[in-house]
Amino acid sequence: MRRADEKGEGVTQQPIPHWPGRMLGPVFVRSTPEGAPERAVYVHGLAGSATNWTDLMDELKDVATGYALDLPGAGFSPAPADGDYTVDGHARAVIGLLAAVGPAHLFGNSLGGAVAVRVAALRPDLVRSLTLISPALPDLLPRYGPARIAAAAATPRLGEWVADRLRFVPAEQRVNATFNMVWADARRIHPDRLSQAVEELRRRDDLPYAGRAMIASARGIVAEYFRRGAGSLWNQAARIAAPTLIVYGRHDRLVRPAMAAKAGRTFRRARLFLLAHAGHVAQMEHPALVAAEARRLIGETRLGNAPLAS
């Protein structure tokens, strides 16, 4: 396992604009300019959106044209016609995007990591490499905060009631609480990014399906904890042949960094990378460091000599 001792002090530099996007089939997709030798598809986590990948896409735009989708019901993507917010439903949306753009290097964070594992297991022909950042894979010892959220989401009607009540909490308060949960040091977030997140949350508050999308997606993750047999995420992970980079943050409050040991034993061609001063969204906190490891993996994949482990 490689470790990085990056520092987390001060506010980040002036952020770049979010990448432009358009509807591509049933989902909204943001993309970098065409012309790079490879393609990459990015899948965000619960309550996130394609903009979670803005900075990492910028770091990698010379080696991979990036396509970051808003999962069904998230960001600017409408609610799915079939109302399916399970991991399987989200995986179908990602497979649809991959089928449209061609085989790509697949990235996933949190819920998006779980979705990416399922995609890579079901459609290995579409996945050239896999990069997982704090993937939400089943853990028998979930952290206390996430366990409470999961319990609320899984309880009939309670999840919807909580989501509805949250709309009365000021957007600024909710955004700050979220960033304090998923970043190791929220002081590093640029004020422009905070303002953008607040405006986006206010926009989503006016969407009739927004609360349902979040709660149902959370239930989809909870359901994966109880899935057994060949279709379970860990069993699928063991079958993935694509070279895989798995990134954990030592200060992750949602996914236990200790899960790196199990991931290293399970994935067939895995490299582990631990960021000492990162939380749950390392691609947002330290995009240059994550990009360096991803660039290394993409280069090795192109040469056909990605290592089995390191």
From TrEMBL:
Pfam families: Abhydrolase_1 (PF00561). GO terms for molecular function: hydrolase activity. Gene3D superfamilies: alpha/beta hydrolase. Residues 41-287 form the AB hydrolase-1 domain. Keywords: Hydrolase. The keyword Hydrolase applies. PANTHER family: HYDROLASE ALPHA/BETA FOLD FAMILY (PTHR43194), PEROXISOMAL MEMBRANE PROTEIN LPX1 (PTHR43194:SF2). This is Alpha/beta fold hydrolase.
